[in-house]
Amino acid sequence: MIALDVNGAHAGPAVVVEGARHAPTAVTLFGPAAEIADPPGDVVDAPVAIGGDEEPSLAVRSKPDASIVQAARAVGDGRAEALVSAGATGAVLAASLFHVKRLRGVSRPAIAVLLPVPGHPTLLLDAGANVEVRPEHLVQFALMGAAFMRAVHGAERPRVGLLSVGEEAAKGTSDVVEAHARLAAVEAGEFDFAGNVEGHAVTAGAVDVVVTDGFTGNVALKVMEGAAKTVVGAVRAAIGSSPLAAVGGLLVHGRLGGLRRDLDPNTTGGAVLLGLRRPVVIAHGGSSAEGIANALRLARRAVDERAVERTAAALEAAGTLRSAGTASVAEP
Amino acid sequence: MIALDVNGAHAGPAVVVEGARHAPTAVTLFGPAAEIADPPGDVVDAPVAIGGDEEPSLAVRSKPDASIVQAARAVGDGRAEALVSAGATGAVLAASLFHVKRLRGVSRPAIAVLLPVPGHPTLLLDAGANVEVRPEHLVQFALMGAAFMRAVHGAERPRVGLLSVGEEAAKGTSDVVEAHARLAAVEAGEFDFAGNVEGHAVTAGAVDVVVTDGFTGNVALKVMEGAAKTVVGAVRAAIGSSPLAAVGGLLVHGRLGGLRRDLDPNTTGGAVLLGLRRPVVIAHGGSSAEGIANALRLARRAVDERAVERTAAALEAAGTLRSAGTASVAEP
Question: Can you give the pTM of this predicted structure?
Answer without folding.
Answer: 0.90
